[in-house]
Amino acid sequence: MNNKEKLRKAGLRPTKQRMIIADILLDGINRHFTAENLQNEINSSGNSMSIATIYNCLKKFRNCGLIKQVESSKDTAIFDTNINQHHHFLDEETGKLIDIENDEVNLHKLPKIPQGYLNNGVEVLIKIKKQI
Amino acid sequence: MNNKEKLRKAGLRPTKQRMIIADILLDGINRHFTAENLQNEINSSGNSMSIATIYNCLKKFRNCGLIKQVESSKDTAIFDTNINQHHHFLDEETGKLIDIENDEVNLHKLPKIPQGYLNNGVEVLIKIKKQI
DNA sequence: TTTTACTTTAAAATCGTTCTAAACTACTTG
DNA sequence: CAAGTAGTTTAGAACGATTTTAAAGTAAAA
Ligand SMILES: [Mn+2]
Ligand SMILES: [Mn+2]
Ligand SMILES: [Zn+2]
Ligand SMILES: [Zn+2]
């Protein structure tokens, strides 16, 4: 399926701007990035785009499940092209994230979900620190 | 150990402002809060404090290990008086966090820590959603 | 007591993100 | 295709959380 079809299937009009972003993000490579990172890639590809449009598109892509947003206490939002359920190593010094595939972690015992709620996804974060 | 001693032990001068905050936060009750939440509590206690001082103190307290900061993709920092290793339920709709004690989770299989790094803490986040 | 380093503060600045409103474009309908 | 319309892009303004500034205040050291 090409990117135009992917956008259509997600219910998004394949505009020029969304296609530029899809061409960068939906290439099958897993990565973590900020809106500014993406703007730099767009610029490098010979295109340009308003930062408002980049935020609009990232939000649409995320809400359609084409990308994810990572839980992170950094002040800048981090997005993730790996949409499979997976986990992360986090180097708190640098903010760098490394994927952990889902089958690398085995949660043996899980607490009971609070009354009236449903489990909506489990994320494991392993904080790591450079060895001295 | 009283709060003045706790601050001294943490290497912090027990100033009037830090004592006011310690009296609120270090009462042994586990809670999640923002800088603004804390300012409201300070006001309710009949005191007042510049928001810059509140941020300064929270950062110092966190760096000394008197409190923690939660990983959260919300735009407002969330702090935690529960400094034991523990986990969270997160209702993504409301942002509400609920503690999960460490022994309620059992990680059976963990991935190998990347070369040159040390494990610096594991956090499990269980996203939950209101049942319909 | 004097000195020193650290702390607090109001206000300004910063920075990521969202909003506004006007111009533009993709899709629908005739 | 031609119009109509609903959705999208944009520059720039606005916003809100957090940090910085720089001057006044306070705690600890000498
Ligand atoms: Mn955050
Ligand atoms: Mn943010
Ligand atoms: Zn990832
Ligand atoms: Zn907690």
In the CATH hierarchy, what is the superfamily of the largest domain in chain A? Winged helix-like DNA-binding domain superfamily/Winged helix DNA-binding domain
Q: Tally the beta strands of chain A.
A: 7
Present as ligands are: manganese (II) ion, zinc ion
Low-confidence stretches of chain A: none
Give the structural class of chain A: alpha+beta
How would you classify the quaternary structure?
homodimer
The appropriate CATH architecture of the largest domain in chain A is Orthogonal Bundle
Could you tell me the strand content of chain A as a percent range? 25-35%
Q: Major sheet of chain A, described briefly?
A: 3 strands, antiparallel
Greatest chain-chain contact: A-B, 40 and 40 residues
Overall form of chain A: globular
Radius of gyration over C-alpha positions of chain A, nearest whole angstrom: 17 Å
Helical content of chain A stands at: 25-40%
CATH topology of the largest domain in chain A: Arc Repressor Mutant, subunit A
Average pLDDT number of chain A: 96
Structural write-up:
- The structure is a homodimer of 132-residue chains.
- Chain A is an alpha+beta fold and 132 residues long.
- Chain A folds into two domains: 3-69, Arc Repressor Mutant, subunit A (Orthogonal Bundle), CATH 1.10.10.10; 84-128, no CATH class.
- Helices cover 30% and strands 28% of the residues of chain A.
- The first copy, chain A, is built from four helices and seven strands, in the order H-H-E-H-H-E-E-E-E-E-E.
- Chain A has helices spanning 3-9, 16-25, 35-44, 51-63; strands at 32-33, 68-70, 78-80, 86-91, 97-101, 106-109, 117-130.
- In chain A, the strands form two sheets. Chain A has a three-stranded antiparallel beta sheet with strand order 1-3-2. Chain A has a three-stranded mixed beta sheet with strand order 5-4-7, with no helix packed on it.
- In chain A, a hairpin with a 5-residue loop joins strand 4 (86-91) and strand 5 (97-101).
- Chain A is globular.
- The model of chain A has no long low-confidence stretch (mean pLDDT 96).
- Chain A binds chain B through residues 69-73, 75, 77, 87, 89-92, 98, 100, 104-111, 113-114, 116-131, and chain B through 69-73, 75, 77, 87, 89-92, 98, 100, 104-111, 113-114, 116-131.
- One zinc ion binds at residues 32, 80, 82, 86, 88, 97, 99 of chain A.
- The structure holds a DNA duplex (30 and 30 nucleotides).
